[in-house]
Amino acid sequence: MKYNPNQIEAKWQKYWSENQTFKAANDSAKPKYFVLDMFPYPSGAGLHVGHPLGYIASDIYARYKRHKGFNVLHPQGYDSFGLPAEQYAIQTGQHPEKTTKENIARYREQLDKIGFSFDWSREVRTSNPDYYKWTQWIFIQLFNSWYNNDSDKAEDISTLTAIFEKEGNATVNAVCDEAIVPFTAAQWNAFSKEEQEKILLQYRLTYLAETEVNWCPALGTVLANDEIINGVSERGGHPVIRKKMTQWSMRISAYAERLLQGLETIDWSESIKESQRNWIGKSVGAAVTFNLKGHDEKVAVFTTRPDTIFGVTFMTLAPEHELVTKITTPEQKQAVDAYIEATAKRSERDRMADVKTISGVFTGAYAEHPFTKEPIPVWIGDYVLAGYGTGAVMAVPCGDERDYAFAKHFGIPIKNIFEGVDISETAYSDKENTVIADSDFLNGLDYKKATQKAIEALEQLGQGKGKTNYRLRDAVFSRQRYWGEPFPVYYVNDLPQMIETEHLPIVLPEVEKYLPTEDGQPPLGNATVWAWDTANHKVVSNDLIDHVTVFPLELNTMPGWAGSSWYWMRYMDTHNNEAFASEEALQYWENVDLYIGGSEHATGHLLYSRFWNKFLKDKGFAPTEEPFKKLINQGMILGTSAFVYRFTMGTDVLFASKNFIVEKDGQPGVYVAFDSAQNKYIITEQESDFVPVLKIHADVNLVNASDELDIDAFKNHALYQDYKNSQFIANENGKYIVGREVEKMSKSKYNVVNPDDICEQYGADTLRLYEMFLGPLEQAKPWNTAGITGVSGFLKKLWRLYFDDNGLIVTDNEPSKEALKTLHKTIKKVQEDIENFSFNTSVSGFMIAVNELSAAKCNERAILEPLAILISPYAPHIAEELWQALGNEGSISQVPFPVFDAKHLVESSKEYPVSFNGKMRFKIELPMDLTAAEIEKIILADERTIAQLNGNAPKKVVIVPGKIINLVG
Fold first, then answer.
1. Is 919 one of the annotated binding-site residues?
2. Which part of the chain is the Methionyl/Leucyl tRNA synthetase domain (predicted)?
């Protein structure tokens, strides 16, 4: 009976679907386990073999936990809003919803073929109104909340207004806007409703404010920092500039300390935790205010080194700082304006990363030193960011490398305030060994004492105080795009009002164009039915706007991270129409036990998710402080790209096989000449005939496992029509050999391998096993299709343990000790490997076990039945088929995992090699508990020993129990 993976896999995929085999219950008596994959975006390209890596790993673990008696929730869905679908809509005119549905159908087809144990009854899509209704609901909760520093949590905005009504804001300790104007209870109660709303916006957890944003003109939208790479948009590679816009923002900064402390309670890799710590960027120091000469305004700075305040010789403001235009002198205006314009074209990330470029412009203004009253020149420089701290720094070049380089470059004086330190070549940044000098009342003090004394003196002057600062800034929450969650917001006198939650969802309207409007409004500005009727509680035509009962709706949409910041909770109770999840479901599932996904989400998605989870916990909705207990970042599967080598001779285009490529002066090329006798170009050995070559990506599907290009297929491929008449110079065997390089798997590099093709040719179980076999889960590894045949052969060998050409050959005979040893050795290894996420070594263990059992001609049910269970998390289709063939009912997926018994690994006897003068002559099986003397007696009496000695007595007998028997004669 032959192993037919395609037939078997189709059969069991149909069975799982019809029987909802992996449907999780919310009220099981079993212990719960929640396994989650990072939310996939369904791109039109579908899956390549790199995408399923994490899904296979999570599926193995989910299946394993079911075998171990857990009620496992392993759901899947789609992060289906986003820019790619919108860009496609702009190009083709197709509605993003249509392309998104088509892409999801393609993804689902591919995922099903690989045999994942997802609970598809809980599928969610962020672009479905029944999902984003609750994203809108969470937004409203954030709007109606403020952060109370005294209780260290978010509270309803009504508790804040109650304080205002009784006490004013003097006693309020909140996370809020800077420069809050104090008011009394009497003043608050006398304010108009509009005035009160404006004040509350300064405290709400989501608020409207003019913010410096990353604006991409080509995409017509704001981008987050993690959507920009090297100053251009990640999507499309378009230029990004800094621009001020009125945007919705979220006060994630309120949670900075809790986000930092929470890292100590979760099982994540240290590298991911460190990325988050750096992004949060906690620093302890002082807030210092510098007066500006000739101006009423003051410059606020935050410094971690108030002990060095007497070393300040200049100040630097971010080019976007609001004071720049006010304090710049007429003489400096042209230079300052030009610098600001140039800086706007660089992203914050680029400016932070660029430590080599030194640039800046003097504003012409001077600040006043708080103690010496000396004038301090005020510069602008792009190494200072408007959104970090106050957007201004007090520059102490003697103690900071960047300030030192800036001062040297522009000839600004450098004052040395460190005792016994030479700063002629570089700044001195070792604060622990600092002794302050030339600093008035701080002279002779170390870093800690000088810091404390400087802060005390600044407080006495009213120009500073001790402060803890965070790099983490409030998150911009608006996008100028169409395909995203609509805000549940309408405007009365330009002030935002929330739509009552009972009228949600506010559904995305139809528009004719997906581009911004001609006057620069977001795409929703093209909607003709996009106004809110407060009397009838519905969306109506814009023509009905009267600013009495009908008002304009928000034109921006939410960012991509909105829907993905809470989706794991929706999986707990997907079809609930009354809440995003019931209290019972939330209490049962609590949070995600295992989360697997790519490290590219180390900051953005994971920080926002933790922020929303903590907020929902504060409000009594989420049951836990942290959303994800354990996080594993899978490594990337890299593509093995193929290259052909193109060169031209006059008007002729030629390609040379890789074996002819040489390098001359760092340039790859070939030695080539025209052979008039053969009327074609040939490879020579004459250096004078050197011609440079250009490497061109070749589609890997045109190359076989021996790196041989199918030349005819290449010439006829749609991508390479320009080379249809080109000459290919092959090797001596008539083969054109391509070059190979390991790169990121990408459509643009033509190195994508489609998992459908692998499943069709070898089966999904082979794909699953091979992806795990490639290497450790968390490491990057190159894909090599050539290696997959070995895994395919292993499954055929496994099959032959159970079947021969005539059918099932499994017996109920007692298994041998060797077979039991192999089985229990494998049980132990596989269990340990799965729990340590060492899936690659499990596959090796399976191969060893099957080889040993095949060699021992093992056909016993007592061995082969548990072996099928062991392999079922990895190769579930073949395992189900074997389980059924053995006469069992139902799915193997719920069967208890085999129990390891250590007694089968205890050796009761040992097969010794018996050597004479170091040469092994025969073997003998002896009990392990014999002494050396007992072993010697048995060996000397053995007929084979007597024959070897030929009547002579050995000079020496060397015996090490359990290891060596050697007779020296």
1. no
2. 39-143
